[in-house]
Write the structure tokens for this entry.
Amino acid sequence: MESNKAGMTLDKSVNFMQRAEALMDKWSAALYRFEESRGSQLTYRDSIGLKTLRIYQCWRLVMLDRAKSGVTDLESWDKYNSTFQMIVSLAAAVVNTTDTDAPISTTSLLPSDSFSEGCKRPSFSLDMGIICPLYDVATLCRDPFIRREAVKVLRSASRQEGLLNSHLCAVVAERVIELEETAALRSGTDDQRCLASAASHLRGLNSNSQTEVSSQHITRSSEVPHAARFVYAYPNFDPLYKQAFLVLAADQAGENHTKIPLPAVTAMLDME
């Protein structure tokens, strides 16, 4: 009986993945045809929308591929580095297009001379845009250059998308990068030590450890071992006490997690 149930569950899962893949293929083909036929006629707003759709196309293809393969190894994210780079490049193009081509009256209430000084035009949307994919790249891609470029784009943008703020996400992503790379350099391949290393790093390293870590740098994603990678890392907010925390998990079940204060983000919230 149990084997029959397991077989039925597997069949449903396979059927679901086949349908999801077929739908994604149709959607991608439709997007390609639209871009081919209308690409040269798009307004700047349409161009931004098209780039955003391509970002989500890249990201959904990654998630679909991981679901099909059934891989849970955190180092398997490295195979998508080229896709992560594409997402960052498209997001940067969205920010640059918004900043250089949009009429000021439609994107900001700031005086026009502020833009001549290099400030980004603030942008607000109730819909999700580039912030979530960029945050995912910064926290799931372990290539030190790609993930820092994602943070750079988040910082360069001045965007509010629903509840997501680009600057706040950049601050959180930077902390995740710091914790993972510090754990990789200090703690080797032990899960418990890596998580403990991340927590202790925020409380302050001793001078010897600080010197040891500062003299080393991660140069490629393969230098961040499985044990130093967090399964998920997301900000958590306590609206009552106006405090921000970073929730980190080092195992797939999420049982081995820690909650670390984010004083920099808390200070930013106090300014609101």
